[in-house]
Amino acid sequence: MEAFEVRIVETDETPTAVIRASTSWDEYPALWPKLLERVWSVVRERGVPAGRNVMRYLDDVPRVEVGVELEGACDGLGELELSSLPAGRAATTVIVGQLTAERIALAHAAIHRYCGGNGISLAGERWEVYGHQRGDPAAIETAVYWPVS
Q1: Which residues of the chain register pLDDT less than 50?
Q2: CATH number given to 7-147
Q3: Looking at the whole model, is its pTM more than 0.85?
Q4: DSSP character string of 119-147
Q5: In whole angstroms, what is the distance from residue 51 CA to residue 114 CA?
Q6: Three-state SS for 79?
């Protein structure tokens, strides 16, 4: 089993431009890239300064926000909505390298084990921040966050 180092960190609020969607877990893997392409299409067309890709799980349906970090002010987002990743204490771990549904699930499970074993309560909506691929795909970092109380 892959080992993930879990830490408790303070996060800053990060503005995002997103599309909200609801789907089943089975349909979700096929939907995510389509939504993300729609986000990037609007971002490019409107010249919006954007950063890394993000996924925010609003509940376990799943209701999700798929989008990008905003790196500055923007005027008009078309079909996109303004949102944000929350500020506060969070448990986090990082997936390095190839991203698969299994590795994402293992990272989330590692956070649950760590928090459960240390008497830390998970609270709120979890999210993931996906690093950009620049060069070596084995070096891409994806961070998983769960708010804690």
Answers
A1: none
A2: 3.20.80.10
A3: yes
A4: T--B-S--EEEEPP--S-GGG-EEEEEEE
A5: 29
A6: coil
